[in-house]
Amino acid sequence: MTMRATFRQFQLPERSISAAIPSGEEIFAIGDVHGRADALRFCLQCIGAKPRLNGSRRTIIFLGDIIDRGPDSLGAAELVVQASGTANADLVQLVLGNHELMYIDALAGKPSLWLTNGGLDVLDEVDRDWRSKPLSQVMRVVAERMPSGFSKLIHAAPSHIRVGDLLFVHAGLDPNSAPDTHLDRKRPHVANDTHWAWIRESFLTWADGWSWDPAECRYRAGDAIVIHGHSPAITLPLSAETMNLSPCDEIDRFSRLCLDIGSAQFGQIAWAHFYRCGEETKMQIAAASEMPTVHPLDLFF
To answer: Which pLDDT does position 2 carry in this prediction?
Structure first.
């Protein structure tokens, strides 16, 4: 039987959060994509179909890792470039993920880290016979095939974006480093557990808040919330029986929200909607998940 995939939207009920955002702002943050253009297209269509709040400015913020591992990185990159139209957005922004940083390094002649972390899938997508050709030649073809708008976007993209009390970054913050130092866009790209595009353990387990106190030079409890990807909050496929997105929401325990839910492995992408309702800031988490189905005609073969 031939298995064909469709996509279904899951969502949690909206909730209030302590973080404040400017009046008139409506933000959709989208987690790791990893070459799943099909799931991303569905995400953007779901966002575009959502009625715009009266008088709001709608912003899409991608949390990085658009490319690598999945089957259609070029298509995913093109969808990012076209996201304003698909999602009915006024502004589209991207913070760099570690996979974009590795790709940029590969274009600069340092491909080894990228190739061992998902870059091979992009090479296969571009040219199935690339192994018989000089790598430098293949990389030129990859650069030519990558949508030009995406290439410009990643070279200009920041390490993070702040909107009110929300901070959007790919991997996270370092609890032992001042934000201006840790989030420096120009810091050398090193694949270790202190870089803003790679950090995991010390960030994920920090429970003392992410409001920076410059007088005491430390983070403390406050209204700040970090919106990130990189470290999957969900490691199982979503389904009608297990539509549990709650592991993404670590706001009450760790002042953070994770929107990485295993896109490459499970064909599912999470996003979060932030908006003002009176004096409150509201948030709703949603996801697109691949739902394998059997075509009715296949039952007869």
So the answer is: 46
